[in-house]
Amino acid sequence: MTLIPTTKRGSLGRFTLGAVIVVLFTAATTAVAGLMEFKNIAADLSRTPALKRAQVSIASPGSPQTILVIGSDHRAGTPWNTSNTDTMMLIRLNPSSSTINVLSVPRDLRVQIPAKGGSFTSRINAAYSIGGPNLLIRIMRQQVFPGLTVNHIVDINFGGFRALVNAIGCVYSDVDHRYYNNTALTDYSSVNIQPGYQKLCGSKALAFVRFRHTDSDLVRTARQQDFIRWAKDQYPQSSLISNRDRLLRIFGSYTQTDHDLHTVDGLINLFNLIVFMDGHTIKQIRFPAQFLPCNPACYLGATAAAERRAFRQLMTPTQSHPSGSSPAAHGSGHGRHVRSRPDVFPDPSGGERQAAALGKVGLPVYYPRVIASSSSYCYQDYNSNCYLEVPSPGSYPRKYTIADRLGHNYRAYRMTLLSNPLLGQYYGIQGMQWQNPPLLASPSFTRTVDGKKLQVFTGGGKVTQVAWHTPRGVYWVSNTLTNSLSAQQMIAIAASFTRAG
Description:
By secondary structure, the protein is of the alpha+beta class. The chain has two domains: about 15-170 and about 235-315, Nucleotidyltransferase, domain 5, CATH 3.30.420.590; about 325-500, no CATH class. The protein has eleven helices and 26 strands. Strands 18, 19, 20, 21, 22, 23, 24 and 25 form an eight-stranded antiparallel β-sheet that branches. The chain has a six-stranded mixed β-sheet with strand order 11-6-1-2-3-12, sandwiched between helices. Strand 4 and strand 5 (about 120-125) form a beta hairpin. The longest helix is centred in the N-terminal third of the chain and has 20 residues, at about 125-145.
């Protein structure tokens, strides 16, 4: 029996991540598996019944495929009207692409739900509650992405999320600010996570990806996609092979799929495609949502033209670029100096104050002399824009110790900056003795600016981190979860790193 824990409002839908993690990872085991392995996988997936009359189109072997992954609280065999979802993610696997493209559809997107005698306005997640995956796909195709063809459906409930994260050895995550909520004060689930790069396991990982207390649907979906990317990049194939049986049992116990994924032929078709794409990076496609006036309900909307552009991005294969080049690099500064530094301003006193508040860290402290315009540091003293219910002693800024997977401890610190209080947008300055954390394993390109050799990391065509190494540590600036800072801003901030004291 699959046990579904009782949760408070705001907990649904983040468990799509577990489905993506296992689908992408367990597929790679087929490189060393035979027919019996596929039979075992089919048996594991058949722990829950296949989705009836799933609206899928079976792709021919070797062809690109689109997977709809849903996070829900649906208990297999129960009516859909007792179920909820707020995560709907499209994954595009194309053997001609150098990336695995991922697009999240926000739960608050305004659509028309068919009803007797007409239709009514609601959020798109209501389509799932009324008619399950079939109605959801129908509305996506008719009102959001004309031309959408879904090849497979993976519907995972949240009972196995903690087990899946722990089974892959937890996930090092770049936490952008302090996540805090006290259930006694609100009806959102409790959470208490400090800012900074750190390893998140089980319940903390769950709290991080499902948080929806002070930010928007757009920020939450961006956080989900980041977590998927971090998890995929950190889990080695050797661990996958040795741990695949445990992962598949968890996956099969908490997931419903279309009937084709209960067959050996269907599994071979999908898994061979994923094996071919093993090692590909995840490209995050942003849904072009806009906030609509609350009258009285609050919705997200998007123009048809913008939705078409996002859908084309999802379906278009990413071409490989020569080593050292990237689309995000253009205009980011070449040679010694950044060509221009738009939307940054000098704030050395703010960085000095942060360094002074840290005190002795155990490694040299660097801060940026310039920060993004319209942003500000989060400080130890009370600031309603940076705190939730209560002030956060030791959070802004924060010094702490982080351990690698071998148990070696390193000194670290984090400075947090608020970018957009209405959306809950933060970016951060990180320093640590650990020179090669997983986040910085594969830079997209390098730039030398103002005498500093900077490593630039990209995702979805945006700059996500810019790092700089010294003999005693590594320092980087992390973008907001939606990567709202431009490449020029990110590189200018990192190029301005200055030692305190």
